[in-house]
Amino acid sequence: MHHVTLDTWSRLPSPIHRLDPRAKIAATLAVLVSLALTRDPGGLRIGGYFALLTLLGAAARVPLAGVILRAALVLPFAGGVALLNLFGGDPARALGLLAKSFLSAYMVLLMLSTTPLHALLRGLESFGAPRFLLMVMQFLYRYLFVLSEQAQHMMRARDCRGGRRSFAAARGAVAVLFARSYARAERIHHAMLARGFRGHFQLLDPPALRGADLLYLLFIAASLTALHVSLWNH
Length: 234
Hints:
The chain has 234 residues and is an all-alpha fold. The chain has helices spanning 5-9, 21-37, 43-60, 64-71, 75-87, 91-112, 117-126, 131-160, 167-194, 211-233. The chain folds into 2 domains: 5-124 and 208-233, no CATH class; 130-194, no CATH class.
C-alpha cells in the first residue's frame, strides 16, 4: 500500500498525526456540522474556514497543494446544483454550495491524510459504527491492493516475455488474474487465522486520549465559535 498517496501521507511524522483518531474524527464532524449550519457564507467567512484548514494542514506537514487539488475534485459534482441556483437568481447560494463542498472535502482529506486506515476504522468503531461494515471496508481496502499487485506482476511478466497487447490476450489475462488473486487471498486468510484472527483487528498500540488531543479539540471548538461569532457580527 506504499504507492497510495493518502496512505503515504498518513504515516508522516507530525503533531497532528500523533493525535488520537477519535479526536480527529470528532474535529472533522465539528467542522462539517459548522459548515452545514453556516448560512450564505461570504468571502470573509470562506476565507476564515480555509485559513483554519490550511493551518491544520501546515501543522500536519502534508503537501497542501496536493490536498487542495484533490479536494477540488468535488467541485464538478457540486457544480450542477450550483448552476441551478445560479440560473434561479441566487448566486450567493450557488457560491456557498461550492465553497461548502470544497471545504468539507478539504477537511475530510486532512483527516484521511493524517490517520492510517486501521486507526481511522478503530476510531469509527469507538463512535459506534457497525463492526461488520468496518471489517468489510478493511478487507476491501487490503484486497484491492492484492489484486492490483498481482496484475502488475502479470504485466511485468508479459513484457519480459515480449508478449503483445491485444483484446484477446487481455481477456485471457483477466481470468488468470482472478484465479491467482483468489488463491492468494485464500493464503492470506489462512495466514490471518493462524495468527489468531477472530473477526476483529487488534491494534498493537491501542488509542488513548491525552492532553494534546483535548487541546486540539478545544482549539477546533474555539476557532469554530470565533467564526460563528464573526458571522453574527456581520
